[in-house]
Every structure is written in structure tokens, then in C-alpha cells.
Amino acid sequence: MNKIALITGATSGIGEACAKKFAGAGYDLIVTGRRTDRLEQLKINLQADFPIKILSLTFDVQDRKAVESRLGELPEAWRQIDVLINNAGLAAGRDLFADADMNDWETMLNTNVHGLLYVTKTVVPWMIARQKGHIINMGSIAAKEVYEKGNVYCASKSAVDALSRAMRIDLLQHHIKVTSIHPGAVETEFSLVRFKGDEAKAAATYTGVTPLTAIDVADTIFYCAGLPAHVCINDLVITCTQQADAFYFNKNNQ
Ligand code: NDP
Ligand code: 8X3
Question: Residue 71 domain-assigned?
Fold first, then answer.
């Protein structure tokens, strides 16, 4: 029987790269996101390439009832989730505290924190019943350092960091691994979303650096997931070589 991975936010970027990586290794997948067309295309492509089963579920992680009902409908066989990758998330806007939009703040907190909690709280009882499982939470370098105009995005990822540590303690007795991954700049649709479709601003984020790719992060997540049962990477910060932390970049490789 194949292992099962549940990947939230699999319609683009890191989540999509994880879906491809885990599919290639023979995992059956539950992939989620809001864009059904992309999920269906991903499913068609992966099923053509790999002998695996895929379930695609469309829901907004901010919607507690939708999360609980869509995941709650999973048949018993699909509840045997070995790896949960809590990846769905976003930054909305990059503004000084006084200028930022409250709606953006709510969207980030509702998605990055509440969404992660809704999904995890639904899946954890199934892992507890099996006394095994691995939860991989997508944090960020923004969880480790607060930067100008990062305010609530940084706060939301700091919450993910704190929750990962809390889950690791509380789930210890159930043999459940908890890993948090904290990437620096990764070139995905993230910046386009953050800057609300402004392609010039999104592209400027990566000017002068060779950023991480979604595949780099997916490979790292896959490595963490593949370690022996007695080994857990708890916390992992990954940046491109031209990035030292949230502030310092060696732009243009000087
Ligand atoms: P993308 O924008 O490429 O992907 C984000 C994914 O999250 C999409 O699949 C999107 O699906 C999903 N998503 C967003 N909001 C919701 C929602 N409300 N409900 C369900 N799904 C949602 O960005 P990345 O791949 O870069 O981002 C993935 C994660 O990595 C995020 O948590 C992000 O904060 C984190 N991260 C990214 C970094 C970067 O530099 N790119 C660095 C550090 C962390 P859909 O729109 O279909 O719902
Ligand atoms: C995304 C990386 O530096 O924009 O989490 O916060 S950063």
C-alpha cells in the first residue's frame, strides 16, 4: 500500500512541486487549493506519469466549515495520512503598519494561522489513532526575523513557528513528528499575490539574486519526510546562497 501525503496549496509553487516530488516517490496524494481547474490538471498530469491515486479537494482553508466537511468526508482509506504538508498560505500587501489594509491582515491571519489550525485539527485524530504521522508546517524566514513592512505576515509566520513547537510537545506522546520549514526568497507566485498582480514589483523581489526554486524547497521537505522513524528535523531554515537572513542579500553576487 502506498503512503499518503496531504498537501494544502498544491495549485502552484512549493505545494505543486511537493505534489510532483511525492508522486514521483509513489505516494498517493490528497491535493487541495481553491482553483479547481489547476487541481484537476495536476491530477491528470500526475496520474499519467505515476501509478498513484490522487484525490483533489477544492476548499478555502479560511472556511472552517468547508475544511471540516471536505476533509471529514474522506473515506477511511484516505484518512491514513502519513504526511500532512501545511503549505497553503500567502502574504497580502507589503505596507507600513499605519498604511496597511485591515482586510489584508485578516486574510493573512485567517489563511496562514486559522487555516493551518483547521486542517491540522481535522487530520491529527487520524494520526493519533495510528500513533504515527508527520506534520510539516510551512513557516518562513519571516517567522525568524521581523522586517520593515512585514508586520502581520511576519506575525502569522511567527505563529506558525510557535504552533509547530507547541504541536511537537503536545503530540510527542503519539509519536507524531512535527517539522517546520522556513524558506527565504523562493520564486513562485508568492510575490505576484503579495503585490496583487503587479508583475514589476513581483519581479523586483528577485532582482540580482538566484532565489530558491519551489523544487529546492520540495526536495528539502521530501528529505525531511523520508528520514527513519526515530529521526525528526524539527526546524529548518533554508535560503539561497545569496541570502543570509531576512535582511542581508549579496545582490548581483559581489
Ligand atoms: P504560491 O502563491 O505559488 O502558492 C500558494 C498556494 O497556497 C497556492 O496553491 C494557493 O492555492 C494556496 N492558498 C493560498 N490561500 C489559500 C486559501 N485561502 N485556501 C486554500 N489554499 C490557499 O506561493 P508559494 O508556493 O511560495 O507559497 C507556499 C507557502 O510557502 C506559503 O505558506 C508561503 O507563505 C510560504 N513561503 C513562501 C516563500 C516564498 O518566498 N515564495 C518563502 C517562505 C515561505 P489557491 O490560490 O488555488 O487557493
Ligand atoms: C516569504 C519570504 O522574505 O518575503 O515568506 O518574508 S519573505
Answer: yes
Q: What tens digit of pLDDT does each residue of 209-225 get?
A: 999 999 999 999 999 99
Give the total number of structural domains in the chain.
1
**30 Cα–ligand 2 center, Å:** 26
- Residue 89 maps to which CATH number? 3.40.50.720
Ligand nearest to the CA of 31: 1
Q: Which domain, by its residues, includes 193? A: 4-238
- Per DSSP, the residues of the chain read ---EEEESS-SSHHHHHHHHHHHHTT-EEEEEES-HHHHHHHHHHHHHHSS--EEEEE--TT-HHHHHHHHHT--GGGG--SEEEE----------TTT--HHHHHHHIIIIIIIHHHHHHHHHHHHHHHT-EEEEEE--HHHH---TTTHHHHHHHHHHHHHHHHHHHHTGGGTEEEEEEEES-EESSHHHHHTTT-HHHHHHTTTTS-PEEHHHHHHHHHHHHTS-TT----EEEE--TTB-SSS-B-GGG-
Classify residue 252: in a domain, yes or no: no
Residue 27 catalytic? no
Ligand 1 pocket at CB < 6 A: 9-15, 33-35, 60-62, 87-90, 111, 115, 138, 140, 183, 185-186, 188-190, 193, 214
pLDDT for 144-173, tens place per residue? 999 999 999 999 999 999 999 999 999 999
Examine residue 81 and state whether it is found in any structural domain, yes or no: yes
Q: Is 243 part of any domain?
A: no
